[in-house]
């Protein structure tokens, strides 16, 4: 990862992410073929059964591009939390306008957001992990439950390289997700309905949705090679050293040598970088504090 200061101290604008990071691995073509096969497998479940969860990050714009390029009937949803960067909202509009597959934003309940802010303040997430997870629950997990209602499978842009907690992910997983609300700090009750055997390198966990993770084995360089090769539209925050982009108050740029997700909830322990959408029960909890914004 290039240093921010090394590219900006001379008064020059930062280089494009495509120029900085596009480095395909030796096995990229095989990975791409496997990813395409996984997406076709997901699409075979039917448009009413499967959906892509997109954060509009680099991983997700690649998946959306593949869904459209392969002309797959897979609808897409975005959790529009009410706290996204203006750059992310602009990309959402462009994606909705240019995507063959429908792209639907899911927003939190206004009353729940306002009650949280009145009770705890705008900056509550910086005071404790419990409050931060409560905010994520209102802004992400409850809308996620609505987006996944009636589905038997979903597609995510997780990658093994992103963090130690994700290092052993299969390409297909049976994952617990919210059915009707948030259950505790790590996520939710299982969603109703399950898909068939995971197969193809997947494994069964507890009852829940089948989670397709078609980019699990891709590197950061693979992603940007694909984006550069196909001219995929992406969030300009990536050009400003934001490899992982979430809500604006909880995301910052990173520096040379930092973990790809270290810009998320950076005041918490480095290894605890989950909002609850993909956290496992043994996800570490905060043990020391970093400087607040």
From TrEMBL:
InterPro entries hit by this protein: PAPS/APS_Rdtase, PAPS_reduct_dom, Rossmann-like_a/b/a_fold
Subcellular location: Cytoplasm
Gene Ontology terms: biological process: hydrogen sulfide biosynthetic process; sulfate assimilation, phosphoadenylyl sulfate reduction by phosphoadenylyl-sulfate reductase (thioredoxin)
CDD domains: PAPS_reductase
Role this protein plays: Catalyzes the formation of sulfite from adenosine 5'-phosphosulfate (APS) using thioredoxin as an electron donor.
Cofactor note: Binds 1 [4Fe-4S] cluster per subunit.
Catalytic activity, as annotated: [thioredoxin]-disulfide + sulfite + AMP + 2 H(+) = adenosine 5'-phosphosulfate + [thioredoxin]-dithiol
UniProt-annotated catalytic positions: 275
Database matches in NCBIfam families: PRK02090.1 (NF002537)
EC number: 1.8.4.10
Gene Ontology cellular-component terms listed: cytoplasm
Pathway connected to this protein: Sulfur metabolism; hydrogen sulfide biosynthesis; sulfite from sulfate
GO molecular function: 4 iron, 4 sulfur cluster binding; adenylyl-sulfate reductase (thioredoxin) activity; metal ion binding; phosphoadenylyl-sulfate reductase (thioredoxin) activity
Keywords: Cytoplasm, Iron, Iron-sulfur, Metal-binding, Oxidoreductase
Annotated family: Belongs to the PAPS reductase family. CysH subfamily.
SUPFAM superfamilies found in the cross-reference section: Adenine nucleotide alpha hydrolases-like
Protein name: Adenosine 5'-phosphosulfate reductase
